[in-house]
């Protein structure tokens, strides 16, 4: 059980991460400054450097935080959970600075001199676990290579969000995600499961705590 000191330290770290995400989302890696992040977080510069030794470490922490913005809110399992990940992800990319910054930094990292494939591998592992559970439940076709499919889905989602960002500022990303599932679900799910897995706009609204058609 963490004590009050540990809880304060964790809270400070989370505040720094959130502030850093806002700045990285707005300005990119090169445009972000540690002093601006400090001011946004409402902490001292010493507190920032206590938790993160430099801007690179802070940026990588934001990159690695992506699953934590989505996975804890999920309640479904197996193949439906996999779909729900993308439905929450596509909606939160429109408004959550921590997720937006993580995706931006991951996508643009070669321009900063980074070479960190961890965020992609995190998502691939999470998706593969969903597919394994779906296979055990009889919802995923037995001839499916779940590892290869998980890797493909990460790449597909990466492309979806990049295209959507340029085409509509990500306004159409949820619809693109639902279209992806409508196209590939018949190829990966058993016939019985394919009829029951919900990829609808109503499902997207439900997992995001919205009313269908309410958008952001």
From TrEMBL:
Keywords: DNA-binding, Transcription, Transcription regulation. This is ScgR2 protein. InterPro entries: ArpA-like, CprB_TetR_C, Homeodomain-like_sf, HTH-type_TetR-like_transc_reg, HTH_TetR, Tet_transcr_reg_TetR-rel_C_sf. The keyword Iron does not apply. Residues 10-70 form the HTH tetR-type domain. Transmembrane segments: none annotated. The lineage of its organism: Bacteria, Bacillati, Actinomycetota, Actinomycetes, Kitasatosporales. It holds the Pfam family TetR_N. GO terms for molecular function: DNA-binding transcription factor activity; transcription cis-regulatory region binding. PROSITE patterns: HTH_TETR_2 (PS50977). SUPFAM superfamilies: Homeodomain-like, Tetracyclin repressor-like, C-terminal domain. Residues 33-52 bind DNA.
């Amino acid at each position: 059980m963490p004590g009050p000191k540990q809880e304060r330290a964790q809270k400070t770290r989370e505040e720094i991460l959130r502030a850093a995400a806002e700045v990285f989302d707005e300005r990119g890696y090169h445009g972000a400054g540690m002093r601006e992040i400090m001011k946004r977080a409402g902490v001292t510069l010493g507190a920032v450097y206590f938790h993160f030794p430099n801007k690179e470490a802070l940026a990588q922490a934001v990159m690695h935080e992506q699953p934590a913005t989505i996975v804890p809110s999920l309640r479904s399992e197996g193949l439906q959970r996999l779909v729900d990940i993308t439905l929450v992800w596509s909606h939160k990319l429109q408004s959550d600075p921590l997720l937006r910054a993580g995706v931006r930094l991951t996508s643009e990292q070669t321009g900063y001199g980074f070479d960190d494939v961890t965020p992609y591998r995190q998502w691939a592992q999470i998706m593969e676990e969903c597919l394994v559970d779906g296979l055990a439940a009889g919802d995923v076709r037995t001839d499916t290579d779940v590892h290869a499919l998980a890797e493909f889905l990460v790449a597909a989602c990466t492309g979806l969000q990049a295209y959507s960002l340029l085409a509509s500022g990500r306004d159409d990303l949820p619809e693109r995600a639902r279209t992806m599932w409508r196209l590939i679900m018949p190829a990966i799910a058993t016939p019985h499961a394919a009829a029951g897995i919900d990829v609808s706009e109503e499902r997207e609204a439900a997992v995001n705590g919205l009313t269908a058609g309410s958008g952001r």
